């Protein structure tokens, strides 16, 4: 069976990209990465893709006069590569509504909080400061507003006494690396129906709603 082609947009480290690369290495996984696009040259995510033999391209936002022109270049490049699902994996640019609506329900983002709580930046510290007992990550279908859209996969992890931004981020990142491939697997295998803000999922697994027990 033909595998669904992914286009991954990155800006940096690319550890979530690596999780997707690793998942796609299994021939039974329903997707493959056709292209990795970075808005920054020289980042670790590009090295990871090159090492895996995946085509890469850098499109710097600095070379464009405004967001619409940059997004149009991204869009054109992704479509020329035959991309069917766009995965934002640490892509640090906001996308225009035109770009987002043009891809319908076929753009995914991962955010290191249990959305709809703690959208935006400094999310780990804000979660700690709130006194919440749980944090986590969310993979969602992208809508024009930042960190909004139907939630596909979530994983919860505990916030422990004494956690720092870094210790919590590391715990969540481990969960992210399971959640993103699971979300891609569901979407690429046609198991997702979007109904308003709810994703209805045919045959969810334990990884779809994932809970990491306290780490003691
Ligand atoms: C992750 O925490 C992701 O949730 C957020 O940005 C970070 C990217 O990390 N959107 P990486 O580049 O995937 O390692």
Would you tell me the overall average pLDDT?
A: 95
The largest beta-sheet arranges its strands as 3-2-1-4-5-6-7-10
User: How many strand units?
Assistant: 10
Q: Outline the biggest β-sheet.
A: 8 strands, mixed
Going by helix content, strand content and strand pairing, the class is alpha/beta
Low-confidence stretches: none
Overall radius of gyration? 17 Å
Q: What is the helical fraction, as a range of percent?
A: 25-40%
Order of helices and strands: EHEHEHEHEHEEHEEE
What amount of the residues lies in strands? Answer: 25-35%
Taken from the alpha-carbon principal axes, the silhouette is globular
Distance between the terminal alpha carbons, to the nearest Å? 44 Å
Ligands and ions found: 5-O-phosphono-beta-D-ribofuranosylamine
Figure out the total of helices: 6
Description:
The protein has 216 residues and is an alpha/beta fold. It is built from 6 helices and 10 strands, in the order E-H-E-H-E-H-E-H-E-H-E-E-H-E-E-E. It has helices spanning 15-24, 44-51, 67-80, 97-102, 123-130, 165-188; strands spanning 4-10, 31-38, 56-58, 85-88, 107-111, 134-141, 151-158, 192-195, 198-201, 209-211. The strands form 2 sheets. The chain has an 8-stranded mixed β-sheet. Strands 8-9 form a two-stranded antiparallel ribbon. Helix 1 (15-24) links the parallel strand 1 and strand 2 (31-38). Helix 1 (15-24) packs parallel to helix 6 (165-188). The longest helix has 24 residues, at 165-188. The structure holds 5-O-phosphono-beta-D-ribofuranosylamine (GRF). 5-O-phosphono-beta-D-ribofuranosylamine is lined by residues 12-17, 89-90, 110-112, 173, 176.
């Amino acid at each position: 069976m033909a595998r669904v082609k992914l286009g991954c947009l990155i800006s940096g480290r690319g550890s979530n990209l690596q999780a997707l690369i690793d998942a796609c290495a299994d021939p039974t996984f329903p997707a493959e990465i056709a292209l990795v696009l970075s808005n920054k040259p020289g980042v670790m995510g590009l090295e990871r893709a090159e090492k895996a033999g995946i085509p890469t391209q850098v499109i710097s936002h600095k070379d464009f006069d405004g967001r619409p022109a940059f997004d149009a270049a991204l869009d054109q490049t992704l479509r020329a590569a035959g991309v069917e699902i766009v995965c934002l994996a640490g892509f640090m640019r906001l996308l225009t509504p035109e770009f987002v609506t043009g891809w319908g329900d076929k753009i995914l983002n991962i955010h290191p909080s249990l959305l709809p709580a703690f959208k935006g930046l400094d999310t780990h510290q804000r979660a700690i400061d709130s006194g919440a007992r749980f944090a986590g990550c969310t993979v969602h279908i992208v809508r024009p507003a930042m960190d909004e859209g139907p939630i596909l996969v979530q994983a919860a992890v505990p916030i422990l006494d004494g956690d720092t931004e870094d210790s919590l981020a590391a715990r969540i990142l481990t969960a992210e690396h399971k959640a993103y491939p699971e979300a891609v697997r569901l979407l690429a295998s046609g198991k997702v129906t979007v109904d308003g803000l709810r994703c209805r999922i045919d045959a969810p697994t334990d990884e779809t709603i994932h809970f990491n027990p306290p780490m003691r």
